[in-house]
């Protein structure tokens, strides 16, 4: 049996992921699953303030900046170096280093090939909480690598591939975007929804309608 065009587009390259998501939105519309529809919309448009961000979009960065190490009489100022943050407790360190990547898929694809770097700025007043005898933190920002962004894009592409392959296998060619019918058993429709949710959120214990997700936070970008 000939494979669906949407599956061929997934294999051909990342630049078509936005189109794949849009077509998948149309294909799955008849299921009426709000959670799946919201995920597709968020991946296309980006996650808004207050939206919950899936774990695969949560990044841990490197604390970089300027600091002075010494006793005031003798010391050395480090610039654009890794900043010691060991004074913070583990929970605070996690909060500082973590970034919930909320950009839509087209923006992510652009970012991974852009010359600019993804940076979360840290307010200057917070630097004082990191300072201690012998260490004065002057400037701090959290840096994230292009490989991390590439990993997020690859993760999204892999999820879409799993979902489309399953639909293509169970319901046939998807090219006319009209996949489901009234004759399909309800149990079969519920099963495909559960499969898609499990693929999206990587948690086999999640059931349809479960709202437990990682909460979003602000993103910072920099040159």
UniProtKB/TrEMBL annotation:
Span of domain AbiTii: 5-189
Lineage top rank: taxon: Bacteria
Record-linked Pfam families: AbiTii
Protein name: AbiTii domain-containing protein
Organism, as annotated: Halobacillus trueperi
High-level lineage: Bacteria, Bacillati, Bacillota, Bacilli, Bacillales
């Amino acid at each position: 049996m000939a494979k669906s065009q949407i599956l061929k587009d997934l294999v051909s390259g990342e630049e078509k992921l936005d189109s794949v998501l849009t077509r998948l939105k149309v294909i799955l519309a008849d299921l009426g699953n709000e959670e799946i529809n919201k995920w597709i919309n968020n991946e296309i448009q980006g996650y808004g303030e207050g939206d919950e961000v899936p774990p695969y979009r949560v990044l841990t960065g490197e604390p970089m900046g300027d600091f002075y190490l010494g006793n005031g009489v003798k010391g050395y100022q480090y610039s654009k170096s890794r900043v010691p943050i060991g004074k913070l407790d583990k929970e605070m360190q996690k909060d500082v280093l973590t970034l919930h990547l909320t950009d839509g898929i087209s923006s992510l694809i652009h970012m991974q090939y852009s010359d600019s770097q993804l940076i979360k700025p840290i307010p200057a007043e917070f630097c004082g909480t990191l300072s201690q005898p012998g260490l004065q933190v002057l400037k701090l920002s959290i840096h994230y690598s292009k490989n991390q962004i590439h990993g997020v894009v690859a993760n999204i592409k892999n999820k879409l591939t799993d979902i489309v392959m399953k639909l293509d296998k169970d319901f046939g060619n998807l090219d006319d975007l009209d996949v489901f019918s009234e004759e399909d058993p309800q149990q079969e429709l519920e099963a495909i929804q559960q499969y898609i949710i499990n693929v999206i959120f990587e948690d086999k214990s999640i059931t349809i309608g479960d709202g437990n997700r990682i909460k979003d936070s602000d993103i910072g970008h920099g040159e």
